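Could you join me in thinking about how sequence relates to backbone shape in a protein? Label the sequence line and the structure token line clearly, so we can match residues to local backbone shapes. Once you have written the record down, we can walk along the chain together.
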Amino acid sequence: MKIKKGFELRDVCDEHIIVAYGIENIDFNKVISLNESATYLWKNVVDKDFDVETLVSLLLQEYEVDAETAKRDAGVLLDEWTKAGLIE
């Protein structure tokens, strides 16, 4: 999977926000705020193919977390990004 074109991470008032641009995203009317770990993952997978195992590996490299927790958290994040229409 990949993050769809037309979405960009921006820092707004000390918040990490996903913004949409381009005609293909004209109907996108959500505000998506990312926490620190989701921002870290976004920055490391933007413009790349990735899967849940990629996210798990990144979490394990950056944070002191066990593999089971990393896998659960990565799965929840992917579900949220999918429901928001951010990935393809």
